[in-house]
Amino acid sequence: MIGYLSRRVALALPILLGVSLLVFALLQLAPGSPVDSLVGPYATTEDKAELSAALGLDRPLPLQYLSWLGDVLRGDLGQSISKQTPVAGLLLPALLNTLLLAAFAAAVAILLGAGVGVLWARTRHPWVRHLAEGIATTASAMPQYVLGLGLVALAAQVLTWFPVSGKSSPSGAGAGGAGDVLRHLILPGFTASLVMLGIVARMVRVSLADVLAQPWVQTMTARGLRPRRVLRHTVRNALPPVLTIVGLQFGYLVGGVLFVEIIFSWPGLGTRLYEAISARDYPVIEGGVLLGAAGFVLINILVDLASAAIDPRLRSAT
User: Fold this and answer.
1) C-alpha distances in Å from residue 28, one per residue of 35, 60, 242
2) Measured between alpha carbons, how far is 64 from 251 in angstroms, rounded to an integer?
3) Measured between alpha carbons, how far is 90 from 77 in angstroms, rounded to an integer?
4) Rounded to whole angstroms, how far apart are CA atoms 273 and 294?
5) How far apart are CA 256 and CA 202, in angstroms?
6) Interacting residues of 304 by C-beta distance below 8 A, sequence separation 6+
7) pLDDT tens per residue, range 140-160
8) How far is residue 186's CA from residue 105's CA, in Å, rounded to a whole number?
9) Residues 231, 236, 238, 239: what is their CA dihedral angle, to the nearest 10 degrees?
10) Cα torsion 25, 26, 30, 35: sign
11) What is the pLDDT of residues 29-79, one digit of tens each?
12) Quick check: 262 and 114 in contact, CB under 8 A?
């Protein structure tokens, strides 16, 4: 298992390096600069040049990248240009909020998606299969921002118990407590879970149907074992592909809640990145994308390790 983990980490490092280089290059190609966002419209060329030198933006691009990369390797993500505070202090709390939202959304998607998938695979009633298929298809096809805006409008008129913005209430009984945070999580969490719910339902259905068609399952059924016991064994054997797709989708979920966070004003990494892009704050953008990529890679490594623990054949396959 140690060798398997070492190979996965060795593959992850070039990916993160490539992401950092790509983001740095794309920022240089984007119109505007941090200097333009900081100085006023009547700033002179000399003022812009002086500020650019103070920010280190007048150096050759390769030196800027190598300097930033060296700081990152030492654990320093730099200084925010617009807020003049350490980037790590801005991004790490936001990353925790994003992970909280993603974990809640993933839990909703796994519970509902697995239930729909099992029902879809095992039921003999055509109308139940059609209902399960319709739920999975609708969840996969509906854009998150459409559902999010619809829930905001609905909550403003009908579902008034569910807050539509922020992470906690500014005042009142229980403000900032676990119950308050949970109420704020429900609408954005359900919105973010939609696509993953549909994919999990389909994957559970396909994987479980493949296992149910195996001869050993039919043998267990013929020997008179209770359906619940047969289902327990089949679910265990259907887990590896489902676990893999759940891990991948959770990685996409962490990086894909940007619109959900903006719609519900959730103080996460997506909201910070949106603010940084608007302000041309290069260090925050680079640090935020790198943290998101690192989280995605780490999640995939953990999923690979979990899959290898369930199915030892995967350790020797790579």
Assistant:
1) 13, 12, 40
2) 29
3) 10
4) 16
5) 20
6) 4, 8, 247, 314
7) 888 877 888 888 888 767 767
8) 9
9) 140
10) negative
11) 777 777 777 776 667 777 778 878 887 777 888 888 888 888 888 888 888
12) no
Catalogue all structural domains in the chain, each as residue range(s) with its CATH number: 92-314 (1.10.3720.10)
Task: Give the length of the chain.
Answer: 318
Distances, alpha carbon 32 to alpha carbons 37, 172, 280, in Å: 8, 43, 7
Residue found by looking up tokens 């920022």 in the block: 27
The rounded distance, in Å, linking the Cα atoms of 136 and 197 is: 7
Looking up tokens 């990369």 gives: 69
Phi and psi (nearest 5°) for 287? -65, -40
Please enumerate in sequence order all residues whose Cβ is within 8 A of that of 134, keeping only pairs 6 or more positions apart, or say none. none
